[in-house]
Amino acid sequence: MGLLLLVWLPLALPLYRWFGTGNTGSTITIVLLYIEFVVLLKVWGRRVHGQRRPFKTYGLEASRQNLLELLIGLGVGLISLGCLFGVETSLGWITWTASPLSHPLIILEGLIVALVVGLAEELVFRGWLLDELKRDYPSTTALWICSLLFALLHFIRPLAAILQTWGQFFGLVLLGVLLVLAKRLGQGRLGLPIGLHAGLVWGIYMINVADLVAYSDQIPEWLTGIDQNPLAGAIGLVFLLGLLLSFGYLLKGQKSSRRP
Predict the structure, then answer these.
(1) Confidence of residue 21 (pLDDT cuts 50, 70, 90)
(2) E strands present in 205-251
(3) Highest mean pLDDT among 43-47, 157-161, 255-259
């Protein structure tokens, strides 16, 4: 990470000076940082760990099985989020103002954003970082460190924003654990966690950008989701715990089927 910053900073500082620290400057510098990360990742895997195909080692492989698992994860993420909003609708906590199908461009835009976010974050956290941690710690310890770092790095924001959205931290930790379990279910491949991550991002993106739902003023935000993030509320945490239990059950069955 130190090497990455040493290469990135001499390029990023002039760009920040030129474009400022707004959305344009931040986007350009973050994309540049990620491109450098991917390039150095290949060098790191080959030179430090002696891996001939580092990206495949991290779980990013071009295979039919990986693509199938990505599609399954995408479906699971969308359907699960749909069930969550269905429960909130039946309880009268939210009302639908429009149908997602009435915003086809937002659907397509959301899918592209979700896949980019899912691929980028999963390669970093469940790919490279988890692999590094597993080299020095037991798998359970590596799982929790990876999940905590995943949540903490999403909170690099102004103090006022941290205090306003602190409830999202617990949801992010549970999501991090869930995505590690998804990788284990995929036997080390990243297709399932990328798809699951993208499915959740896609659903939340469409709901928020298209303003598809209106939250009841009678229901506290800590219950439905802080800052209109359904995974940052009590109902969202219950939903994530349900997915965790389901994935744990599937992993247990997978291990049992391998025994002679």
Answers:
(1) low
(2) 213-215
(3) 43-47
Give the position of tokens 């969308």: 78
Strand partners, 95: 214
Please answer whether residues 143 and 177 qualify as being in contact, where contact means their C-beta atoms are separated by less than 8 angstroms. Answer: yes
**To the nearest whole percent, how much of the chain has pLDDT over 70?**
96
What does the chain come to in residues?
Answer: 260
Summarize the chain as % helix, strand, coil (round to 5).
Answer: 75, 0, 20
Question: What is the three-class DSSP state of 213?
Answer: strand
Residue 30's pLDDT band, with cuts at 50, 70 and 90, is confident
Residue 8 near residue 36 (C-beta atoms within 8 A): yes
Inter-CA distances, 3 with 42, 109, 170, 202, Å: 14, 34, 31, 33
How far is residue 166's CA from residue 154's CA, in Å, rounded to a whole number?
11
DSSP of 157-205: S-HHHHHHSTTHHHHHHHHHHHHHHHHHHTTT-SHHHHHHHHHHHHHHH
Three-state DSSP class for residue 96: strand
Under a CB-based contact definition with an 8 Å cutoff, are residues 247 and 182 in contact? yes
Place of tokens 């009302």: 95
Structural contact between residues 130 and 142, judged by C-beta atoms closer than 8 angstroms: yes
Distance between CA atoms of residues 141 and 43, nearest Å: 27
Q: What pairs with residue 167 in β-bridges?
A: none
Distance, first Cα to last Cα, the chain: 43
Burial of 20 (0-12, 13-18, 19+ CB in 10 A): exposed
